[in-house]
Specification:
The chain is α+β, with helices and mostly antiparallel strands and 284 residues long. 54% of the residues lie in helices and 14% in strands. It comes from Fibrella forsythiae.
């Protein structure tokens, strides 16, 4: 009994130590998913290989799994929507345990194939797969694809000039909604700059960073921040906060793509816009 209590305690401490990896400063949930998967796979495999018989292995699996379930099941059950984004990185403890179990019982050939699959899948989720889940958690669809009409609207330039939506017709328009308190927005700006630079000579697509002013913002602050950071994409201001309701922007950053007829065809993260843009326009 002491042995399995020690395993359970080790699993609990390991889980607690891995939780901070979900913080953006330490890598965020995509990185956490892969690390947790790998750590719990190795942890489980090591303990099961050391177990003398099937009954001992079963008890060890229970001791590894129980602390994870006690920590995360109540959290995600009571605050499901609030913790939806973190769900895969929490579930990574369980997928890692399952991977360790499989490796324990699999033949040598299957072990080699599984390790390759495990590595590729973890790499894909870390680099791009998790962004599809994030899109689902924040915007309701994995791909961000929507088809919604939008009534006429207007935006304001840094110089105070009003731009009507009619002037954008005939183009694919990418609107990156942000505010000055959004740290994630600033982390995503290099991607917006890359797209703007790559397609600046393409007359079919226009990119704008749409600032939603905060009451504490000084006049012209948004444009100055972008200029001081060396970005060249144009900045527009939401004339009023009703614009975010019009576009159904509930969190920041949110990227909206309008087609030439002024219908919303994408709502989500900038990480996932490459595919819809390639499908909708010729970037030659």
């Amino acid at each position: 009994m002491k042995k399995y209590l020690l395993i359970a305690t080790s699993s609990l401490l390991l889980t607690i130590c891995l939780v901070p990896l979900g913080m953006d400063e330490l890598g965020g949930h995509p990185i956490k998913f892969s690390i947790v998967n790998l750590v719990y796979c190795c942890f489980t495999f090591y303990l099961l290989r050391s177990a003398p018989d099937a009954a001992s292995r079963l008890k060890a699996i229970g001791a590894i799994t129980l602390p994870v379930l006690l920590l995360f099941v109540p959290l995600h059950s009571l605050h499901f929507l609030e913790t939806l984004y973190a769900l895969p990185s929490s579930a990574a403890h369980l997928t890692g345990i399952c991977a360790g179990i499989f490796l324990t019982y699999a033949s040598t050939a299957r072990k080699a194939a599984f390790i390759s699959f495990f590595a590729i899948a973890s790499l894909w989720i870390t680099t791009s797969g998790y962004s599809f889940w994030a899109n689902k958690a924040f915007y309701g669809t994995f791909t961000g694809a929507v088809d919604e009409p939008i009534p006429p609207f207007s935006l304001v330039t840094a110089n105070g000039q009003t731009i009507s939506s009619s002037s954008m017709k005939g183009h694919y328009v990418v609107l990156d909604f942000w505010n000055t308190s959004c740290t994630v927005c600033f982390k995503k700006f290099p991607q917006l700059e890359q797209y703007h630079t790559r397609y600046k000579n393409n007359s079919k697509v226009k990119f704008f960073a749409v600032n939603v002013p905060l009451s504490r913002d000084a006049p012209g602050q948004a444009a100055r921040v972008i200029k001081d950071d060396g970005y060249t994409f144009p900045v527009l201001l939401a004339a009023n906060k009703s614009l975010t309701s019009l576009f159904k922007v509930d969190s920041y950053p949110t990227v909206i793509i309008l087609d030439p007829s002024q219908r919303i065809i994408y709502r989500g993260l900038i990480d996932n816009i490459e595919t819809p843009l390639r499908e909708l326009a010729d970037y030659q």
